[in-house]
Write a structure and sequence with these properties.
Strand content: 35-45%
Helix content: under 10%
Structural class: mainly beta
Largest sheet: 9 strands, mixed
Shape: elongated
Radius of gyration: 47 Å
Length: about 650
């Protein structure tokens, strides 16, 4: 300090001794980066241009070119090259200009200090790095980047960074993160801090780094996250960086001393879920001697890739399946393996597949089960349920950890967990096999009728699968009668034609009104509104294998004024006959299906048919019972057959 005062005094003495009017430049104020349109800077630039340290013109603006020139000059004078034109640098320049003070008298080893009269301005700023967004990852993670920031020095002088404060919170909990995060450290400007093995809420990482004015660096936070972290837990890292300005020795910290939040990191545990695929076929009835799609299952990975190693499917009656084939959802499908039936504990028949089937990260794969069906069912009952039920899954994650899941109702399969399956197993739509399957279709379109006459209400066909004969016992028709003139029209004298032949002697037809059966083949009839008409064959109507028979339902129109109409259709049965497969007729002469041959509590359906799997002869109707190979219209009619309407004309 004494040397500086002496040198300043010598400069003043030189100026005092100079003759009046002598124009000698001198730098009489501290100059620094960021000054604009400043006369002192302009004089400095003129001097540096004259010495060859700077090219161009003197603009009065102290920016990067001038900063670089000052540093070169300071280096040439053996002064600490900070770029700041303080007392030592000014003294060297002025001495050179005036040749009044020898440079050798300057203490060149002293730092170029900023006097307290020059205030420190600007701030340190911390911001999230936009190129590194918050994300969802799967624990465990090693040396995982918990947050990424940009640290900018927006001050007027370099800042000596001293400390990084790290606040870790998991969601709203400030004090549980240490249970899941270890080995915390930061990387900044190509440097790495010490590693904190034990992590708490507030963590402090010492650093020693000078960040020049106007410059910025990346600052990243890393740590190890263990697998015990709760699923979907969010870690919120926040940082505060502090230090001291290199000239004015002013304490400075980022964002006005407040911790600044980083990216949200969600640590979801890896998960493999299994569901019924939306494209699995609707519940259906199949005949034998073909390959069918038994079901589609969707395997979805979240946060972790998996490889399926084992699958087990239970089925109610495997005797009617030759083999099962597992396929992926590629195009064309890739057959993965074939399985034969195995028996577990004498209870559950299981198809077992051992494959290496990859499920990529955050993706899904559909696996399809195909059945190869025999020519005919081996059971003495129709509607054999073959629906596959997924009861066990085993898989590995990318690190080789094994997970599995077993349905609780299938306790012969032990499981240590990780994959969830319903207690009763994962089921797809019902799948039933019969020896032969009928096909019904509507044959004719709308027609008109004049006066009171026999009208063709509905023409339909019944076809038998080539695999075997079909027997039909009962069909229900829905007939809606309307009349805009409200003349109360009705239908009576119902008949059924087989082709062109009147088939009236082979059936009886009626309706149920208040639990009373009313026959409709005579004068009794049905009137305005929606009516149910039941056609029951006296014995049963047999359609030979591979053949089609056409039938027509006819009736006499009565009191049909102009515009009156009768619309007829056959409804579907929406679900399989869970009430049984034994044909029974209670007192009202309408058949239904019971669970045993003597069951009087039966359920009615729109269609009753048999695949004749109980034997090759006509069924016995002794005491109103029959063998258990009857089925309803489920899977035969998947939606109501096309409605046919007759309209009365003038």
């Amino acid at each position: 300090m004494k040397k500086i005062i002496v040198l300043l005094g010598l400069l003043m003495l030189v100026f005092a001794c100079l003759p009046a009017g002598t124009a000698l430049a001198s730098i009489d104020q501290n100059l620094f980066y960021g000054l604009a349109n400043n006369n002192g800077v302009r004089e400095l630039q003129q001097y540096l241009i004259g010495k060859g340290f700077l090219t161009g013109s003197a603009t009065g603006n102290f920016y990067s070119l001038t900063l670089s020139a000052v540093k070169k000059y300071q280096t040439s004078k053996n002064i600490n090259a900070t770029g700041y034109v303080g007392p030592l640098t000014r003294q060297a320049i002025n001495a050179d200009l005036l040749s009044a003070v020898p440079i050798s008298s300057i203490d060149k080893k002293a730092p170029d200090a900023l006097p307290s009269s020059i205030p420190f301005t600007g701030s340190l700023k911390l911001s999230q790095n936009a190129s590194y967004p918050g994300q969802t990852v799967t624990a465990p993670q090693t040396k995982f980047k918990l947050a990424d920031f940009v640290l900018a020095n927006n001050t007027t002088e370099p800042v000596n960074l001293k400390k990084i404060q790290v606040d870790l919170a998991m969601g709203a909990d400030l004090y549980s993160t240490n249970l899941y995060v270890t080995n915390l450290y930061a990387v900044y400007g190509g440097n790495t801090t010490m590693v904190l093995n034990t992590v708490v809420h507030n963590n402090y990482l010492p650093i020693n780094y000078q960040l020049p004015a106007g410059q910025s660096i990346n600052l990243s936070l890393y740590g190890d996250v263990n697998s015990s972290i709760p699923k979907n837990a969010t870690i919120n890292p926040s940082l505060l960086v502090s230090g001291t300005s290199s000239k004015s020795a002013t304490n400075v910290s980022t964002n006005l001393g407040a911790v600044f939040p980083g990216q949200n990191m969600i640590f979801g545990k890896g998960e493999l879920t299994v569901t019924k695929d939306n494209f699995t076929p609707d519940a259906k009835i199949y005949a034998g001697n073909q390959r069918i799609i038994a079901g589609k299952f969707k395997f979805q990975s979240t946060g972790e890739p998996y490889t399926i190693s084992e699958l087990k499917f239970a089925i109610p009656d495997p005797q009617n399946i030759l083999s099962a084939v597992l396929s992926d959802d590629s195009n064309p499908p890739k057959m993965l393996s074939e399985s034969k039936v195995a028996v577990r504990n004498g209870n559950n028949y299981v198809f077992y597949f051992a494959n290496s089937i990859p499920i990529l990260l955050n993706s899904y794969k559909t696996l399809t089960i195909y059945y190869d069906l025999p020519v005919s069912v081996s059971s003495l009952s129709a509607n054999v349920n073959l629906s596959p039920v997924l009861v066990y899954v085993k898989a590995k994650d990318s690190r080789g950890n094994v997970f599995d899941g077993a349905s609780a109702n299938y306790n012969e399969f032990a499981s240590f967990g990780g994959i969830a399956l319903p207690d009763a197993g994962l089921k797809v739509n019902g799948l039933y096999m019969c020896k032969s399957v009928p096909v019904l279709s509507a044959q004719s379109s709308n027609s008109s009728s004049v006066g009171n006459a026999m009208a063709n209400l509905y023409t339909f066909s019944i076809s038998a699968d080539p695999a075997g004969d079909i027997s039909i016992k009962q069909i229900m028709f829905n007939i809606a009668i309307k009349d805009p003139n409200k003349k109360y029209p009705y239908l009576n004298n119902f008949k059924l034609f087989k082709g062109d032949m009147d088939y009236s002697g082979a059936f009886y037809m009626g309706t149920n009104v208040n639990n009373n059966y009313i026959g409709l083949t005579g004068d009794s009839g049905i009137g305005y509104g929606t009516n149910t008409v039941v056609l029951t064959f006296n014995s049963e109507e047999t359609i030979p294998a591979g053949k089609t028979q056409i039938y027509s339902l006819k009736a006499t129109t009565n009191n049909f004024s102009s515009g009156a109409s009768a619309s007829t259709y056959i409804s579907s049965d929406a679900s399989p006959s869970s009430n049984g497969s034994y044909l029974r007729m209670p007192s009202i002469r309408i058949y239904g299906l019971g669970k045993n041959p003597l069951d009087n509590f039966v359920a009615s359906y729109n269609l009753l048919w048999s695949d004749r799997s109980a034997g090759s002869t006509i069924h016995s109707y002794l005491n109103g019972s029959s063998s258990g190979d009857w089925f309803n219209g489920f899977g035969v009619i998947t939606s109501p057959l096309k409605t046919q309407t007759i309209v009365a004309q003038k």
